[in-house]
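Lecture 7 notes: from sequence to structure.
We start with the chain below.
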Amino acid sequence: MRGLTYSEIGSSLGLSRQRVQQLVRPPAAIYRFVHARAHGRCETCHVHTRSGHVHHKSLNDTDNYNDVDNLAYLCVSCHRIAHNGGSRKLPEFKRERIEIPKDVTVIQMPLLDCKQCEHTWVTRLTGTPKCCPRCKSRKWQDERKQEKTR
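Predicted structure tokens for the same chain:
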């Protein structure tokens, strides 16, 4: 299931992105309730997030679209996965290839992965970072412990 952005909806209806967001987004009280119900944690991966998104589980149920049972609190990564058909990758954009002059030295920065929240980033610092910039975990290099199931 692929969701549309507010801009895509607006351009097809002849409305601004802001107006579509006002019409479609859950009211602030419902957003706060969904956030509180999830205790500030993503309902998919259970990572604590301050910048979570409220996700509509069913886009087809127009009568209960903003009903709290149809809403889930997700981290940005899980929300992207939900709208990209299970893929963690961002949608591909057409970009022009830039030719780098031969006299320019290109420095390859290492790509780092947090094993706690699965965040990927490139550090600007030399050496190993102390913590993940997203979840602030100091154990970002350690394997994530599996939660006990009952």
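Points to note: The first strand starts at residue 53 and ends at 56. Helices lie at 6-13, 17-24, 28-37, 76-83.
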